[in-house]
Amino acid sequence: MILEVTTQAHQGHVLLYIINSNGAKILTLPDSSTASCMLVPGNTYRLEWHLWSAQEADYHLQAKVTPKNAGFPPFDLQRRYKEAAQDFGGFYFTV
Q1: In sequence order, which residues have a C-beta less than 8 Å from that of residue 94 and are 6 or more positions away?
Q2: CA 65, CA 40: separation in Å to the nearest integer?
Q3: How many domains would you assign to the chain?
Q4: Among residues 19, 45, 56, 71, which one has the fewest Cβ atoms lying within 10 Å of its Cβ?
Q5: Which domain holds residue 73?
Q6: pLDDT tens digit sequence for 66-94
Q7: What is the pTM of this model?
Q8: Residue 36: burial class (beta carbons within 10 Å; 0-12, 13-18, 19+)
């Protein structure tokens, strides 16, 4: 199973992590990047993101699993901040 992730940051910064059940980061994406990693069916993972900027900024984060899996529906996060900001979030998923 393949997880495909894309990050876009305009006038800001983003770090997106995929973390396995042992707490190890198996994928790290900075700012505007695209990458993929293999997921093992039956395992639990965490998708986590950190956003920050010193000014107005736009962010777009996307992720999907191929082949489709009910444990990870397509993820699409868009954020716009009109001034300096810090934000983060994440969720666990099992494929």
Answers
A1: 42, 43, 44, 45, 71
A2: 11
A3: 1
A4: 56
A5: 2-94
A6: 999 999 999 999 999 999 999 999 999 99
A7: 0.92
A8: middle
